[in-house]
Amino acid sequence: MVKTNKSLNIALAVLFAALVLYLGFALLRRSQSGYTTTQAVMVTVNETGQAQGYVVRREHVLTASKAHVSVYVNEGAEVRAGGEVAVASDSEKTLENAARVRQLDAEIEYLRSLLSAADQAVGAMEHDTAVKNAVYQTSAAVNGHSTAALDNACVTLSSLLLSTGADVSQSDLDALMAERRQLNAGANDGVIEAPEAGVFTAAVDGFEALTPDMLDGITPEGVRGFASEKQQVSADAFGKLITAKKWYYAAVMSAEDAERLSPGAETTLDFGRHSADALPATVRSISEPVNGEVAVVFTVKSGVAETAALRETGCEIVFSSYTGLRVPLRAIRFIDSDEGQVPVVYVITAERMEMKRVEILYRSEDYVILARGTGKDVLRAGNEVIVDGKGLEDGKAIIR
Residues near 19 by Cβ (< 8 Å), separated by ≥ 6? Predict the structure, then answer.
């Protein structure tokens, strides 16, 4: 007969009981902490359609028959009617003299401003007032898109800022004016002036014959036919002026996408890397569908300088835009209320669940965009949102 060890049996029983308690506690913790979470992130989502077409503007090609051309204005700069655009000559020396004359004109104007500010000998308060006025003038010139006014305002502001202790004299000004007179003979020969006001670009592409008059009643085939309008670029062309701030984008897009547009409606055009910002536009016309496609003409009143080099290009038409908090669709639950079924999400804050009511702005197959709310109980960017899990309850403690 085998004898059992009573002490050993007791020890084994205690060990078994402890193991059962441990496993039970572990299962309880797992059941309470088995939640998949993610952060609410602030995003902007656009609903877009694709278009392919041509930029159409009123343009004037600038030409020079001389061997050498020096352009005075920068790409995208506004030029007034009669303003100097370039100088052309068969002699490089003439171009150098013309460039020096322009430099001297700027230096002479600057020195005159310095001497004038020094002669006024205004006090500190008057000087500060003059600086503020010059800043306002500079801002007004920028807002008014006036390059001439901006040049004058910048010279005035610079002279005021540097007038204190400026080591200049009338003899310095006289020396510059003497050099200017010496170079003056023939300095204006070959100067090319703008025939009308416009935005300058060196991008002459052969499509300058495209005009807004060609867009009336245009069809998808008509838009594609613009490719045949390209002409040989003259060897004398050195740039062009875009002479109207209102321009057009004529494009082909699917009839299905175009159903979200209507003549006269406002929309947004996104030319990607070619424009820093999406451009507001108005739908001018939509053609009848042909083989599932339509021709749409958009009117744009901004971004002339940014898009000056664009011609045949693709574009995203932004139908609608939503900015809010992005969370997975699975995170949305619905609860009963006096208003019916309302959407909510559960978040984890300080190891407790919090239920937050939300407003759905946009829904896709995988995620939703929720409106940003105000107040202390709203969902915020960075909140830890529960995506999956059971036993969701407002105020429930979370054991991790």
Answer: none
